[in-house]
Every structure is written in structure tokens, then in C-alpha cells.
Amino acid sequence: MGIVTKAKEVFDRYAGMDAPTLPADRLSALQVALYRWEVNKFKDPQTDQKVLGANEEVGEFAEELVGVLEATTLFVRTVASLGTLNHAVLKHRQGIRGFADKEVFREKAGDAIADIFVYLIQLCTALRLDWFTLLEETAKQVMKRDWKEHPKDANERI
Fold first, then answer.
1. CB–CB of 85/57 below 8 Å?
2. Do residues 132 and 27 lie in contact, with contact meaning Cβ atoms separated by under 8 Å?
């Protein structure tokens, strides 16, 4: 069984995103909580918006890494994987090069996402940061934002 197939099977076990409970695993529970927040706070969340958001954050991160060699190497690998993810999303959206097939798209995007996570976790280690704490605390801050009520400055109201 491929990695992406296994990830889909695990996701399908808790994919009742509107169910009253959250998965027992903290990371899966955070994934569901972020999904619920996104659906509630945005008009029509799309896959390409998530990729654009990831690119925006990578750009901000690049500004902070200038001159840090060890972290920069991991960052370059992350950007390369993000480029692969961009490619998959764009070709899927265009319906070309075989990416119109949802399973082909899921496989390519899943592989790129996994690579990005591995590099970012390694980068956290190089910077002596706990990756899950960063993720969890940032997600808590993000979910305090209400873009429907405050479309211009929700991030500044927390």
C-alpha cells in the first residue's frame, strides 16, 4: 500500500468533519479543528488558496533566514517541494498532464506535502524548536481570526 493511500484510509476513519467529537490523535484533531474553522470563516475555501497561503508563508520565512546556512539548506529543499506541490495543483486545475485524475493529483500532492513536512520538521530541529508546539500554538491563533466579521484585519484582532 502506498503512503498516500494509507494516509487517505486513516483520514477516512475520522472524516466526519462535522461530527461532535475530534479524533484521539492530537495532530488529526488539530487538522479537523482547522477544517471546521476554515469552513466557518471563509466563503469558499479552495485547494489552490492553501498552496498560495503556503507560498506566502515561505516567502515571509525566507526573509528571516537570510544568512543562516544550515537552515537555508533545509529551506531550499522545502521550497523545491513546494514547487512540486504548486505544479500538481496547477496541472490539476488546468486538467492536463494526467492531473485531471483525482487519484494522480492526490498521489503527487500528497508526496510533495510529506516532503515539505519532513524538511520543515528537520528545520525545526536545526533551530531547536518543537514542531508540534509551533503548529498547535499557531493553529490556536489562526482559529481566533474571523475573516467574515473582520475581512480587513481579523489577524490583528487577536
1. no
2. yes
Q: Which of 107, 50, 104 is nearest to 82 (CA)?
A: 50
DSSP 76: H
Q: Is 111 exposed, middle or buried, given 0-12, 13-18 or 19+ CB atoms closer than 10 A?
A: middle
Residues in Cβ contact with 55 at an 8 Å cutoff, skipping those fewer than 6 apart: 82, 86
What pLDDT sits at residue 64? 66
DSSP string, 112-156: HHHHHHHHHHHHHHHTT--HHHHHHHHHHHHTT--TTT-TTTGGG
Q: Give tens-digit pLDDT for 54-83.
A: 777 777 776 666 656 556 677 777 777 778
